Every structure is written in C-alpha cells, then in structure tokens.
Amino acid sequence: MKYRPEIDGLRALAVIPVILFHAEFSLFMGGFIGVDIFFVISGYLITSIIIADLEAHKFSILNFYERRARRILPALFLVIFFCLPFAWHWMLAEQFRDFSQSLVGVSAFASNILFHFESGYFAPSAELKPLLHTWSLAVEEQYYVIFPLLLIAIWKYGINKVFLVVGILALLSLMIAEFDWRKDGQSSFYLPHARAWELLAGSISAFVIHKQGVKSNELLASLGLLMIAGSLFMIDENIPFPSIYTLIPVVGVMLLILFAGEKTRINQVLSANILVGVGLISYSAYLWHQPLFAFVRLRSLEHPSSLLMGLLVLCTFLLAYLTWKYIEGPFRDKEKVTRRQLLKFSVGGLVFFSVIGLLGHFGVSSSNIAHNQEVIDDWRDLSPCVVIKGFRPSLLEQRKTLLSECFGQNENFILIGDSHGEALSKSLRMVIDEKNGGLISLLHNGCLPIVGTSRVPLQINCIKNKKDYWDSALSTNATIIVAARWRLNLVGTRFDNTEGGVEYGDSSLNILLNSKEKHDIYEYTKLFLRTAAHKNRLILIDQIPEAGWHVPERIAKIKSFREPEGVDISTSYEVFLDQNKPIRALFAELETVPNISIIHPSQLVCNIENSNRCVNSTDSQSLYIDDNHPSPRFAEKISKEISNLIPKE
User: Fold this and answer.
1) How would you classify the pairing of strands 453-455 and 510-512?
2) Are 522 and 581 in contact (CB under 8 A)?
3) Best CA proximity match to 553, nearest among 617, 467, 471
4) Residue 191: how many CB atoms within 10 A of its CB?
5) Which of 203, 230, 261, 547 falls between 20 and 30 A from 107, CA-CA?
6) First and final CA of the chain: distance in angstroms?
7) What is the pLDDT of residue 301?
8) φ, ψ for residue 176, nearest 5 deg
9) Which residues contact 173 (CB under 8 A, 6 or more apart)?
C-alpha cells in the first residue's frame, strides 16, 4: 500500500483538537470529533490492506491480528502500567474500584461497554477517569474482529457486491445512531452499533480508491477541510453525537481521503513535516493525554490552571515521541520482536492487567482509603415506593398499587425530582414514616421536573416520564414535593466557586417545548408550578448550595496530602448568591403563591454565625455526596424542615 503522508497530517488534525478539548482549552468546542476522524482513517487503512491481500489471495487473519497487536498493544500496555502506581496512591477507594473495572474492560476490548453503563462522555466524573479514552480503541478492536471475517465471508460474491453490503451496513448503522439519540440523548455515544458507520465510511473510501485511485480535486478537498474545521469550531457537546450531524466531519474526512491528491494544495498542507510528525506519534499522544490530565485533576486540591494544562499538553507530545521511537517502532519490527515473543507479551499483558483489575474490584483497595463511607453507601432509597425513570407500561396504570402500598394514615406526599430528589428521598421517607405518613418518590436523574422542558439533545424518556409523574400526582390529594438542581437546568452553567473549585461537565440548559405562548424558561416554570398549586399543595426545595469541588474527595485529599486530622471546608456565600440571582428571584415570587411552601437549604448551611460562608462539611464529615448532591447528613437537615410542615395526627 502506497504511503500517503497527508493521511498522517490528517491524523494530526484529529489528535490535536482532542487533546486540547480534554485540556479544557475552549478554542475547539468540538475537539471530541477528532475521534470520529480517527474512525474514518482507520476504516480506510484497514479496508485498503484487506482488499489488497484478498485480491492477491494472501490474506491471513492471523497476520492481520498480529499487525493489529503490534500496532495497538505495546504502547497501550506501557501507558496502563504507568497508571498503576498513581492510581494506587492518589485514588480514593471508590475511584480505584472504578479504575480496576476499567483495567478489565480494556483487557477484554470492551471498555466502551463499561463506560456506557458508568457515565456519559461529557459527565463531570468523566474527566477523572484515566482510561476513559480507551473506549474508542475498544470500538476499533471490535471492528477489527468482525469486519475482516465479514469480508472473507462475502468476498466470493465479487467486490461490487461486497461494496453494496458495506454501504447498506453503514446506512443501517447511521440510522441506528440517529434513532438512539432521539430516544435518549447521548445513549449510544460509546456503542459499536452506532459508531460502525464511521469506520465503514472509511471502508467505502477504500473501495472507491481501489477502483478509481486518489483524485486531485482542489474544490472538494478544500470543502472537506472546511467541513472538519467547521465541526471543530461550531459543534459542541449539546449537539447529539453520533447522529446525522456527525456526517459533517465524517464526509469531510472522506473528501480529503478521496480528493486530496498530490497535485492539490490541501495535500501539500497536510503533508507538511510538522503535521506528518505529529501524525506519526498521534496514537501514543492519544494514549498519554487522558491519564496525565486525569491524575493531575485527581491529585490537585484546586482546579488545574491553564498554564499547568498547557505544560501537560507539551509533556503529552514528549512522551508520545519517546513511546513511538522506543516502543512502537521496535515492536513493529519482526526481526526485533518475533511472532512468538509478541504472542507471549500480548497474552501476558492482558492476563496481568485483568488480574490486577479483578483484585481491585473484589477487595484490594488503594492506599488512600480516607473516603467518607457513609456518603458512598448510605444515601440511596431502596424502598419499593421509589420509581426511577418511570414504569413501563404507564405509571398511571401502576398508580393503584403504589397508592395502596406506599401511602400512610396521616398526610401523604409524592416527591417528584431529579437526582437531587433521589438524594433526599431516603431521609424524607424516615421523617414522614415517623408521622405515619406515606411517600412515593418519582425520580428521573438529569431531568428537570417541569413538564414541557428538556435539555438538548432532547431527553425523550425524561419528557414522557415527568408528564406521567405529574399526571399521577395531580390525580391524588397528596402534597407534592419538588426537588431539582434548578440553577444548572435553568441557567445552564456549571458552578465555579472562584476558589479553585470548578465543576466539570457540559451545559445542561433546558429549553421550552411547544409552548403556545412566548415565555422564557423562568416564567414558564413559575406558571407551571403556580398552576399545579391550584390542585395540590406544593413544597418546593430551593437550590441546594453547590460546592464546586467534590467535597468527600477534597476532605480525603486534605487528610492524605496536607492535614492528617482533616479540616472543615466551605465556600463563599456571596458567590452562591451571585450565581443564583435568577433562581432566587424565581423562588421569591413562588413564595408568595398560596398553597406553595419553600424550603431554603442555604439557610441551613450558609451565613451561619455571620461567617459569610456556606459550610461543605462539619467535623470533617461531608455534607455532600459529590459537589452538589446533599449527603445523608445534609439531607436529614432538609427533611426535618419539611417534617415541621407535617401536622401531627
């Protein structure tokens, strides 16, 4: 296969934005599409090699997997091995358990499946996962297992039939990706069935070039580069990915592969020595960047500065060069590393990391065990009266069972909320039970409990479930408690305590759906709750003061790295007031509405004894599960305030 330096230049255009995106440099909002570029390139190169070998009647699946092992495993093993001591010394118990699971996932070429069930790519916790980026390797590895076997099976029917099958599969995969995000946001971000079409787009390019060769078309090549650049600067985490929007960078890469021939200026740009050099080390650079960033964030008490992240970017490329020269190169040389040696190395490495991962998952903890176990284990409400993400069939059809089993003899309550409601549910149930009342908790995490609103991409299940919840609640005479992370959903920005605590994660701003009248989101929320209060008594939980930093982790870090006895931490009350101005105004108006009572959690932890601070912990015990959800200790304080509103029998 003829070497194309512009492909290495294209790799550079993929890896640089990904690294800068994860380093939190906002220049490339869509830097994560670098992974999509890699997928197309990989599909093109692998398919080109397989086609050439099949036509020459010399394709060997064993040789194919050997080449993939030489390419992928040595550098991957080095980076994972580097992670082990830092994970052992710097991670808290829960984090180390998650890391151990990821070791097993990587070793089984299934880390994408693991991360799909753990958290979203844009979730705050994602920034602290050293091996999160291996999800894309897993997708490619799954492609390497299935695609060659598919080509071998259908090759006898002729290359045109093979091309047709590949095209149909690509179209089906794209349709699945588009359907899945409409069903529930980013649900298929990690999954191979919704990513296969991107790799197959590269395969389609390989078939076209095999038949027609690489063309030199300045206009189409320029359009391809423009589509990639536009994606980097204009697409962000609020755009559903993968979806039909992903066609923009994918088609852009295809145009460059097909039409950036040697006679085009685009080819000359992509073939520049510096871009080719970065492209050659791009795999190692991709491997190194996430562990470096994640471990610095794990170790730091404050949010890492831009200067520090910039230095880590430079360190990433230095380590990538050394890895490429001393690990990647030698392992690709069959004279230096024989097939037998490679087999022993590969199997040994996979077994070693699997065993380490299993030990970490089933009991061997990190050296840093100062985590607050009460916060981890004791906050979830496991009562059968809790509904999370709705029943199917409709909750309305389940209502009689819930009412008979979950309502008490005194006043009854229905809690409607997101994960903040879930964090309050257990303690609420305890205080309500004490007064012979009943509680049904109707919860959907990440879902603002106001009918007619949604984040973008649209949360289809959230939209359906919360309408179901409210229809059910308003058909009873129960008091409805509403708890949510109001500021994040209505303002849309993550919290910055201005003292080094900056929350990771994407914007979660809600929009209005099909509103007949022109309202802003605040007016609509106020109108919805005011209307609901005409039928049922409402108790609204005001915004819980956000901390900005993960409070249990910060306490553990202080104990481990600074003060063994621990100290109590707090944040500025003024910052809380400033960043919650629109929320405060909303609740001030709602407080005047008859049949609505407001609980203000800030009054329980902020400005106590005129300190002008909001306490995050007391007696070195966290008041938070993370950086915004109340711990059992804090939830109990809030629940007691609600208990005071319940009449005695």
Assistant:
1) antiparallel
2) no
3) 617
4) 19
5) 203
6) 83
7) 83
8) -65, -45
9) 193, 194, 195, 196, 197, 200
What is the Cβ-side half-sphere exposure of residue 76, based on CA atoms within 13 angstroms? 24
DSSP, residue by residue, 335-399: TTS-HHHHHHHHHHHHHHHHHHHHHHHTT---S-----HHHHHS-----TTEEES--SS-HHHHH
Query: Which pTM was predicted?
Result: 0.83
Rounded distance, CA 17 to CA 27, Å? Answer: 9
pLDDT per residue as tens digits for the range 34-64:
999 999 999 999 999 999 999 988 999 999 9
pLDDT at 33 over 50: yes
Integer Cα distance of 525 and 449 in angstroms: 10
DSSP state of 546: P
Q: What is the pLDDT of residue 120?
A: 56
The domain segmentation of the chain, as residue ranges, is 5-361, 373-545+574-603+634-643
Half-sphere exposure of 200 (CA within 13 A, CB side): 24
The pair of three-digit structure tokens given for residue 324, joined into one six-digit string: 């490429």
Query: Lowest-confidence range among 69-78, 441-450, 509-518, 602-611?
Result: 509-518
Closest CA to 39 of 205, 219, 235: 205
Average pLDDT rounded to a whole number, residues 555-560: 83
d(CA 464, CA 395): 11
Cβ contacts of residue 252 below 8 Å, gap of 6+?
223, 224, 225, 226, 227, 228, 231
DSSP string for 46-104: HHHHHHHHHHTT---HHHHHHHHHHHHHHHHHHHHHHHHHHHHHHS-HHHHHHHHHHHH
Measured in degrees and rounded to the nearest 5, phi and psi for residue 624 equal -135, 150
Average pLDDT for residues 544-559, to the nearest whole number? 89
Measuring CA to CA, how many Å separate 530 from each of 413, 453, 587?
Answer: 18, 16, 11
Lowest mean pLDDT among 92-106, 119-133, 299-313, 353-367: 119-133
Which residue's entry shows tokens 């229905």?
414
Overall fold of domain 373-545+574-603+634-643: Rossmann fold (3.40.50)
Residues 484, 73: Cα–Cα separation, whole Å? 45
213: left (phi over 0), alpha (psi -120 to 50) or beta: left
- Can you tell me the distance from the alpha carbon of 225 to that of 204, in angstroms, rounded to the nearest whole number? 19
pLDDT bin (cut points 50, 70, 90) of residue 553 is confident
Q: Is 297 helix (H, G, I), strand (E, B) or coil?
A: helix
Question: Which residues, 6+ apart, have CB-to-CB distance to 644 below 8 Å?
Answer: none
Distance CA 29, CA 428 (A): 41
Tokens standing for residue 266 = 């685009």
Rg (CA), the chain: 27
385 and 472 in contact (C-beta within 8 Å)?
A: no
- Rounded to whole angstroms, the Cα distance separating 99 from 134 reads 12
Looking at this protein, which amino acid is placed at residue 309? M
Alpha-carbon torsion (563, 569, 574, 580), positive or negative: positive
**Which residues, at least 6 apart from 311, have a Cβ–Cβ distance to it below 8 Å?**
none
Q: Per-residue pLDDT for 122 more than 50?
A: no
Whether 292 contacts 25, CB under 8 Å:
no
